[in-house]
Amino acid sequence: MNTTFSHLFYLRKSKAKPDSGILYFRITVNGKRAVTTTGREVPLSLWNPASGKATGNSDQAKAINRFLSKVENDIYHAHQRLLDKGEIFSSKDIIDTYLGKDKKKEAQERMLLDIFQEHNDRVNRLVGKDFAAGTAERYRTAKKHVEGYIKKEYKSSDIPVQDVNHKFITGFEYYLKTERNCAHNSAIKYITNFKKIIRIALLNEWIIKDPFKNWKGKLKVVDREFLTEGELQALISKEIKNERLGLIKDIFTFSCFTGLSYAEVKKLSEKEVVIGIDGKRWIKTKRTKTKTRCSVPILPVAEAILEKYSSHPQVSEKRLLPIFSNQKTNAYIKEVADLCGINKNLTFHLARHTFATTVTLSNGVPIESVSKMLGHKNLQTTQHYAKILDKKVSDDMAILKDRLNSKNFWGKA
């Protein structure tokens, strides 16, 4: 696309101040002109119309010329942006781009849910590379919640991204907690997912101000549930004749003794079972969530479960254990809990908590070793489980107290 392009700086005399002029610039594209002001006031005595610059070496003249250089650079940048689009443009288009009017127009045209969908499409294409399938699912759910909120509060199928403000965010949080019945932490996580979409809009200059600037979303500290030693023993010893529930019980128990998440158990393959430094079998795999390496020696209970299902028709080199979908697994686990007399809201992830607490930390395994087996990136994450140590200290001290009492250590008659 061939265009001729030039620009010119000049002064227009000020009626209010006869000795000064207002600095303008003129853009010419293919012989057609457009003019706008810079808003800068310049003394007539310093201006050279021939060069279109201030004359002299005074600080004021240097400041004016620095300003001119910046404006000139911005004009060239605006011109290049229009060239990059490959569309026909006018001198006015260059001025509008320089003034940022094109971005405002683009922002008005950018709809919130469209941006969200574009982001989710990219995430879906990168599942297995940069994102886990669970991450993609959370973004899909977050978009669905935003869509529901817009329909309820704005009576619309979508809104311009620039309409998102602090009121929108706080209203969305209230909607999640009331209409969607989300717990506090779940609501904050969905809003955090949504925050990424707003950050994309900011980086692309579709919006100017960050609506999240004054929003503070803090997660509440939640006690992580786990099976006690007695509950774990009840689970292991319970004989379940129903094949479906028996399988679920075994897979859940396997996670209790390996610390693997549902996704990691599902993808566990023969190549991830290796001979460790001690000459025994270990599971060495990458965490699905963080991609960090985790190394877990296979305890006898877990080894027995692998052996039990080694001949199962769904088991192969690529899949060492048969497993239902995540949704069905979590539903069936609750049935197993009822059969075992465990009065807790069992989910598959509770097995990972049980491994961290009841199986390892409470039995004296150092927290550094537990962190490595869980594949945590830092020790602070593992320390969430360390509260079990307080319980162990309490139990140990209770035993000590009984022993001292039996010895009449206190000297009481």
TrEMBL record:
It holds the Pfam family Phage_integrase. One of its GO terms (molecular function) is DNA binding. Residues 222-399 form the Tyr recombinase domain. GO terms for biological process: DNA integration; DNA recombination. Keywords: DNA recombination, DNA-binding. PANTHER family: PHAGE INTEGRASE-RELATED, PROPHAGE INTEGRASE INTD-RELATED. Belongs to the 'phage' integrase family. This is Recombinase. It comes from Salegentibacter salarius. The lineage of its organism: Bacteria, Pseudomonadati, Bacteroidota, Flavobacteriia, Flavobacteriales.
